[in-house]
Amino acid sequence: MGKLLNAGLALGGVVVALGALRRALNPSPRYAPWEKPRYDDFEKKVLVIGGGFGGYSAAKRLTDLTEEREDVGVMVVAKDNFFTFWPMVPGIVSSDIDARNVAQPLRRALVFAGASFRRAEIESIDTERRVVNAEGREFPYDELVLSLGGAPNFFGIPGVEEHAMNMRGVEDAERIRNRVIERFEEVSLIRGEVPESKLTFVVIGAGATGVETASEIHSLVHDALAPDYPNLDPNRVRIILLEGLDRILPEIDPALQRAARAQLVSQHIEVRTGLLAQEITGDRVKLNDGTEIHTENVIWTAGNRPNPVTQELGLPADEKNGIVVDEYLRVQDTPHVWAIGDCAAAPDGKGGLAPPNAQAANQQGYGIAPNLLRTLDGREDLLEPFEYKPIGQLVEIGGDFAVNEVMGVRFSGLLASLFWRAAYLTRLESPQSRARIAVDWILGLFLRPAVTQLRGSDE
Ligand SMILES: Cc1cc2nc3c(=O)[nH]c(=O)nc-3n(C[C@H](O)[C@H](O)[C@H](O)COP(=O)(O)OP(=O)(O)OC[C@H]3O[C@@H](n4cnc5c(N)ncnc54)[C@H](O)[C@@H]3O)c2cc1C
User: Fold this and answer.
1) With the CA atoms of 435, 437, 443 and 444 taken in that order, what torsion angle do they form, in degrees rounded to the nearest 10?
2) Going by fewer Cβ within 10 Å, which terminus of the chain is more open, N or C?
3) For the whole model, what pTM was predicted?
4) What is the pLDDT of residues 396-445, one digit of tens each?
């Protein structure tokens, strides 16, 4: 009888624990559907255009700060209804990370926090009437935040747009993976000489995105594809990482640059620095030293610029087309409009400009929220200037190696890779994505990813 009671209590404990876990992974929305006020009906309206690192963190903090207020409504309008967790995008190439977990549900996160969301592309701003036009609809605002992100910069190099693949999002990462598989399938059908260009992959730009992409292609080829293609020697695949500067990862410490380079070389990735691509054609990259690389597979990660849509909005811009803002991130000469993230030329509080990275966008979004409320409440005298506080750099090179610089502490290797994973896992907003990626990583210790080609997304 006693044993039965103990077993019953234990079972009850498990059921309660599972219920608590389920609730933690599936939080309830702030408003029940019948309680949710319409955005247009709020007395004070904050409209955020863009739901990435900057826009999302601004909207999320605003909803946190106004939890007890009935007068402030927040709406996010973005062209995608997902939040791209950029640091994990390169991991999609090797299938280490599932694309669905990198594109996190933006609508759910915002609606649950108490904001409204509409998926639409901005067309124009009427600053007199304080409305934004997007896809035929007018969105009113009292304060407007623009966080429209960036776009690749091709620096006018001939052939890049036509022949190179970008690495600017989830679809791009999937396209790159499909291209590698496509080449493996093509080459498997060839009897006789295989053109060198088919199996040569050139990644241009050795910043964090380029380094991680080259390494992910290596993992895809050697860990995932090689056993499925016994007639194709994976060592015939050349991966070349090309960089115009004389070093890779220019933003991190030289000792970590050397460690990263050594790791890439150990993966037989050819790191070629101090070389610029001058032209890209369908089957080669022409370099500034007069040589050529025969390749049909070029990936461009070398440049970033503010989203070109900002040029159509008629706002003051600097020579790189970043929206000019003051120390509080208010757009110059444009009352009630603010700009943050990659689309803004934002002062970093130390005499320079904040870099176009997730940390800066996130800090700007977080910091702008109280200033927006102070402005709405007529307390502009209390505005606090933005100051960028770099936390560090984390770069993963393969599943078991990373180079990290965190608050001045530098470390590399397996421990750094575990740190990379733990740090980014906890930064994911969606509890579902967090749980799924953690499970995928644990399974990945025992199982090789099964990689298939999804036709239609190669070109
Ligand atoms: C592959 C890759 C990896 C990266 N890895 C890192 C990293 O590891 N660490 C790091 O610090 N930084 C990283 N970055 C840089 C970082 O992602 C950006 O600096 C950061 O996302 C900028 O935030 P944002 O809000 O300005 O733009 P984003 O996060 O890009 O968000 C832009 C938002 O604007 C919306 N939008 C765009 N155009 C329109 C339009 N016309 N109308 C309406 N909405 C629109 C989009 O839908 C999106 O919601 C990476 C970038 C890339 C490309």
Assistant:
1) -170
2) N
3) 0.91
4) 998 899 999 998 899 999 999 999 999 999 999 888 889 999 998 898 88
